[in-house]
Write a structure and sequence with these properties.
The complex is a heterodimer of chains A (195) and B (223).
Chain A: H1 6-16, H2 27-33, H3 37-66, H4 75-97, H5 99-105, H6 109-112, H7 116-127, H8 132-160, H9 172-187
Helix pairs in contact in A: 1-8, 3-4, 3-7, 3-8, 4-5, 4-7, 8-9
Chain B: H1 2-14, H2 25-30, H3 35-58, H4 68-90, H5 92-98, H6 109-119, H7 124-154, H8 174-196, H9 214-222
The chains are: A mainly alpha (195), B mainly alpha (223).
């Protein structure tokens, strides 16, 4: 990636390289929780929270612990453990201090451990060699991109539920074809900022 | 022996992880732009799945129930690291084109799901067979999609020459992935419905089953 000004990273991670529709990361949760708008909102709020936190923590760990000790090959294990324990910590903290928020997001938090979007962001910031500020911009942009895609999609899906469709297309068939059309419209933004 | 075949067929067809259970979708769509990439991804995931199934099954009696998920994840992450470095060393071109999706095998839902649902409850040999069966199911699905997308998108099959001119490039771009997967899933569901003889009784959405107002809605829709 040549162009790495902050605004370019931000816009590209939301639209041009939208994590779901252009990169195919985080699809399980995308199809899993997008059948209702309310659960889509809950999931994306939880993702926003954990994604930023885990990106910063894994950046710090990678650059200040793994690289100086020449342990880069452990990054897969370290990152997944960071995310898993972070999710646990957030869960405990919320339960104690923000019971209202916990009630709303609680059930989505355990799901996040196996949400590949979170882990992918940790790997991508290492691949792109971002600094801390770029990391923060990239992770929040990605989370916003995730939110936009999942909210648009769940609104469409609520209407699809009522559409009269042939039996075989019903369920996942039509959901994939709808995602194809959405992805096609996001493709129109390719080329923005030279990406 | 009968049980062994049953477990294998179960993973390959009856509970095909991608086409029936709808898990492990990220690599299914992202690594199917060409048949060669699809074969690489299919083999890598099968290797990790089978190895982690064996180890999980071996230690299933030692690991306390409360910490089993973190233990499973560490086992899976270990094998993913091995695969990552093997591919980097022996197939650098494949490593380049699969990119971040090799380390992401760690969060491939199929692997954790099988460790939790099968390997932690069954003996080592059956877990091995289950890993191979589920892996074969994933492999067949991803290679099928890879061949379809490569044929329409770049007019080639595996490493052949161009078969016709002006291919539909959109098929190897992200929208084509969703479209091809949607069509394949629809066909699979059509065949499944035919085989199980499930007749369409109503054109109500799936959530309506069991609702008390179901008959009323059916009436309205049939009018």
């Amino acid at each position: 990636m040549k162009n790495s000004t902050l605004i370019a990273i931000f816009v590209s991670s939301i639209f041009v390289n939208n994590i779901i529709l252009m990169r195919f990361i985080g699809l399980c949760s995308f199809f899993g929780v997008s059948n209702k708008l309310s659960s889509a909102l809950g999931m994306s709020a939880a993702v926003f929270f954990v994604m930023n936190l885990s990106a910063v923590v894994s950046w710090l760990l990678y650059n200040f612990v793994l690289v100086p000790l020449n342990l880069e090959f452990l990054k897969i294990i370290v990152f997944i453990l960071v995310i898993a324990s972070l999710v646990q910590l957030v869960e405990l903290f919320m339960k104690k201090n923000m019971p209202a928020l916990f009630k709303a997001l609680g059930i989505y938090l355990p799901l996040i451990t196996t949400n590949c979007a979170i882990l992918a962001v940790a790997f991508l910031i290492v691949d792109y060699k971002y600094n801390l500020l770029q990391t923060l911009v990239f992770s929040s942009g990605t989370a916003i991109g995730y939110t936009i895609a999942i909210i648009l999609f769940s609104s469409i899906r609520e209407r699809l539920e009522l559409a009269p469709l042939p039996n075989a297309v019903k369920g996942y068939g039509i959901v994939f074809i709808t995602a194809a059309l959405m992805s096609l419209s996001f493709m129109g933004l390719v080329g923005l900022f030279g990406f | 022996m009968k049980k062994v075949i049953q477990v294998f067929i179960n993973g390959l067809i009856k509970e095909n992880p991608v086409l029936i259970m709808m898990i492990g979708l990220c690599p299914f769509l992202a690594c199917s732009t060409s048949a060669n990439d699809a074969v690489g991804m299919g083999l890598a995931a099968t290797f990790v799945l089978t190895c982690s199934n064996i180890i999980v099954s071996l230690i299933r009696k030692i690991v306390p129930k409360e910490v089993r998920i973190p233990v499973f994840i560490v086992i899976i992450a270990t094998f993913t690291t091995i695969v990552d470095y093997l591919i980097k060393a022996y197939f650098p071109a494949l490593s380049e084109s699969l990119g971040v999706f090799i380390p992401l095998i760690v969060v491939n839902c199929i692997i954790l799901a099988r460790a939790e649902a099968f390997a932690s409850k069954n003996n080592v040999f059956l877990s091995l067979i289950d890993g191979l069966g589920m892996g074969a199911g994933f492999f067949v699905a991803i290679v099928l999609l890879g061949i379809i997308r490569q044929f329409f998108g770049s007019a080639t099959v595996f490493s052949s020459k161009e078969l016709f001119s002006n291919p539909a490039v959109i098929m190897i771009l992200p929208p084509g992935g969703f479209l091809a997967a949607g069509v394949v899933i629809t066909i699979v569901k059509y065949i499944e419905n035919k085989l199980t003889n499930k007749k369409s009784t109503s054109n109500l959405p799936e959530g309506c089953e069991g609702c008390t107002l179901k008959s009323r809605c059916t009436e309205l829709l049939n009018k």
